[in-house]
Amino acid sequence: MRKWLEGRVLENRAWTETLFSLRVESPALRFEAGQFVRIALDMEGERIARPFSFVNAPSDPVLEFYGVIVPEGPLSPGLARLQTGDALYVADNPSGFLVLGEVPPAEDLWLLATGTGIAPFLSILRTETPWQRYRRVILVHAVRLASELVYRDIVLELQSSRKQFSYLSFVSREIHPKSLAGRIPDAIRDGRLEAAAGAPIAPERSQFMLCGNPGMLKDAAAALALRGLCKNRRRTPGQITVESFW
Ligand SMILES: Cc1cc2nc3c(=O)[nH]c(=O)nc-3n(C[C@H](O)[C@H](O)[C@H](O)COP(=O)(O)OP(=O)(O)OC[C@H]3O[C@@H](n4cnc5c(N)ncnc54)[C@H](O)[C@@H]3O)c2cc1C
Ligand SMILES: NC(=O)c1ccc[n+]([C@@H]2O[C@H](COP(=O)([O-])OP(=O)(O)OC[C@H]3O[C@@H](n4cnc5c(N)ncnc54)[C@H](OP(=O)(O)O)[C@@H]3O)[C@@H](O)[C@H]2O)c1
Questions:
Q1: Which residues of the chain fall below pLDDT 50?
Q2: For position 1, what pLDDT does the model report?
Q3: What is the 246 CA–ligand 1 centroid distance (Å)?
């Protein structure tokens, strides 16, 4: 039976009116970078729980979660309102397959995220594994507005400390000179993504991890299939490993 651990909010950082990160003190949890855990609040006599990906590395004892307020959603508005010292419940059984242990070796590791889907990749990038296993690591973050390009401090730190690292952003609903326009799948199809990264996409050299909006997962996987890449499954290894947030 699942046990709920009682955590305490150390910090609630508001990035924008709708985006927030919680840092949480909790009893120790074992997980692999890229995994998620159910977190919960008691609301009107009921415990409301949802899966959230860890942003922190497994070695960091402070848990970190990155979320967006879905205005009509049962849990996310309550999470965004939490203040330092408030209680937050954390399940004791992290899980999930968006982990490097499930991804075959290759030349290039591509991490494609929409919105809050960047969370598990930040955890992965904070470990040593990607740097030991891949020659290039390319993080791609697609958001609606430039103000949603969060965790710039981690990106800048990786850009200065890891020669293997590249970062590309997409901003879809305003013009942002430092970002690509439009959506990830279109840029795979028309070659803009490869050109911007300076890395060709091919089944023999590329591994992709995709996270976030299910529409992006479907459309990007279809665009990659046109290039000969296929879903990565335990029985039939491929090049595309996905996690849908809804
Ligand atoms: C494996 C897994 C890991 C997840 N990790 C995260 C995470 O790290 N951060 C996070 O914010 N959410 C994450 N989610 C989504 C999260 O569990 C909740 O669904 C979300 O916080 C909204 O909760 P809610 O109760 O307010 O609304 P819900 O009833 O859960 O969702 C209502 C609707 O909101 C939309 N929606 C849900 N999540 C998102 C999102 N992240 N971004 C944009 N639209 C969304 C969908 O259209 C969904 O149908 C994850 C989901 C899964 C399955
Ligand atoms: N982000 C906000 O400003 C905001 C504000 C209030 C509430 N919310 C809540 O959060 C939800 C969405 O939040 P979000 O902006 O983080 O996530 P999102 O809707 O998934 O958008 C993030 C990025 O993914 C892109 N995208 C969407 N569908 C795609 C597809 N099929 N293929 C490729 N790319 C795709 C979007 O492009 P497009 O722009 O082209 O769709 C955008 O660039 C909303 O439904 C709402 O409930 C968000």
A1: none
A2: 61
A3: 6
Can you tell me the distance from the alpha carbon of 97 to that of 33, in angstroms, rounded to the nearest whole number? 10
Which tens digit of pLDDT belongs to each residue from 151-201? 999 999 999 999 999 999 999 999 999 999 999 999 999 999 999 999 999
Counting ligands in written order, the one closest to the CA of 147 is 2
Single out the residue in 44, 63, 91 at which a domain terminates: 91
* Residue 130 and residue 216 in one domain: yes
CA 51–ligand 1 middle distance (angstroms) = 8
Ligand 1: list residues with CB < 6 Å: 36, 50-53, 65-68, 70, 73-76, 96, 115-116, 119, 243, 245-246
Asked if residue 146 has its Cβ within 6 Å of ligand 2, the reply is: no
Measured in angstroms, how far is the CA atom of residue 239 from the centroid of ligand 2?
25
- Indicate which CATH number applies to the domain containing 45: 2.40.30.10
Where does a domain end: 72, 91, 110?
A: 91
Residues 82 and 123 in one domain: no
Atom of ligand 2 nearest to the CA of 212: 20
User: What residues make up the domain containing 183?
Assistant: 100-244
Task: Give yes or no: residues 79 and 179 share one domain.
Answer: no
Q: How far is the CA of 68 from the centre of ligand 1 (A)?
A: 8
| Residue 162 Cβ < 6 Å to ligand 2 | no
